[in-house]
Description:
The chain is an alpha/beta fold. About 45% of the residues lie in helices and about 15% in strands.
Amino acid sequence: MLIDTHCHLDAAEFDADRDAVRERAFAAGLAAIVVPAVEVANFGAVRALAAADRRIGYALGIHPMYVGRAGERDLALLRQAIEASLGDPAFLAIGEVGLDFFEPGLDRVRQERYFRAQLELAREFGLPVLMHVRRSQDVILKHLRSVRPPGGIAHAFSGSLQQAGQFLGLGMVLGFGGAVTFDRASRLRRLVRELPAEAHVLETDAPDIPPAWIVRRRNEPAQLARIAQVFADVRGEPVGLVVQRTGANAGRAIPRLSALLARADRNL
């Protein structure tokens, strides 16, 4: 199954045509879209998207680029939201969480404190994590080894082959999307070729990380079908096989996804 494991469909960039964007995605062959929250203020928005379409799942978490405006009470509110959502089959994971050591001016100490607290929530509730790992792979790995959440996805992965192996050894899989479609992305493409089939999942990160054919324009989940074809070409494999394997990997990384997919099939 073709699954967009990371898409910010609630973003303001989609306010004018969100329903059309969603329908284009499913018309392009997507079976499901996973929408992670970025702060307490948009928990309701991601829940509402999932309530409106049974093919959409959501995650709850505080993004590293938003921890600067998060208050001490936000972690308590996240816990409450998790507890309230456990019975919702569309609730899939803790995310988007992680560390960003690329953007200037972000407080690394504060990021790490929020990241570790959210990893501990993931472990407590038995939920996978959807992780932002920009320029921060080694520190992310340090916290994963310490806390040991039950799996998840390193989103938009661009680390080394050695780092990739460490994520895999900790039960994670790696998210790949539009960045792979650029001819100049030789290092990333080599990583895609050399990693084992069980390492990958596909994503768009829409409206961000547009593929090469819409560079500097808004990305959207319908692009995942063409991204999958480029990904398959890079690996030298049939696209159908890539879709099958990455879908299976997504289900392994996010166990609650299988219930979402079953529910969607029953109600289409």
